[in-house]
Amino acid sequence: MKMYILVKESIPLGFAITAVAHAAAAAMKRWPDDSEFIEWNNTSFKKVICKVTDKELDNAVVSNNDADFIVMTESILNDEITAIVFKPRKEWPKAFKFFRLYK
């Protein structure tokens, strides 16, 4: 199982780091009683952090309209979307395999 956190490539590094930290914390608060989340938390805890374009971010949301996710924004950036965290699961759409890892 993996949790994906997609970070907009246009977000400055410092804000991107904050967005990822907030995304992980938000996931822990949002899904503490969810059986899949508990399984991921207890057995895998794998997270994939990817840098995506605005279009890739939009497509990830549209192609996963049945998925549970949290949209992260940054007030100091006029509430711009900085990242999206998807609830952990075993299978992911093919497009997720092609997102660039955040390095």
Can you describe this structure?
- The protein has helices spanning 13-30, 35-43, 54-63; strands at 2-8, 46-52, 69-74, 80-89, 100-101.
- The protein has 103 residues and is an alpha+beta fold.
- It has one domain.
- A five-stranded mixed beta sheet has the order 3-4-1-2-5.
Task: Itemize the secondary structure elements and their pairings.
Elements lengths: L1 E7 L4 H18 L4 H9 L2 E7 L1 H10 L5 E6 L5 E10 L10 E2 L2
Parallel strand pairs: 1-2
Antiparallel strand pairs: 1-4, 2-5, 3-4
Mean pLDDT rating:
94
Q: Identify the strand order in the major beta sheet.
A: 3-4-1-2-5
Q: Estimate the helix proportion, in percent.
A: 25-40%
Uncertain residue ranges = none
The overall strand count is 5
Q: What proportion strand?
A: 25-35%
* Termini gap: 21 Å
Largest sheet: 5 strands, mixed
The chain-level structural class is alpha+beta
Number of alpha- plus pi-helical segments: 3
Shape: globular
Rg (CA only): 13 Å
SSE pattern, N- to C-terminal: EHHEHEEE
Number of domains as seen in the coordinates = 1
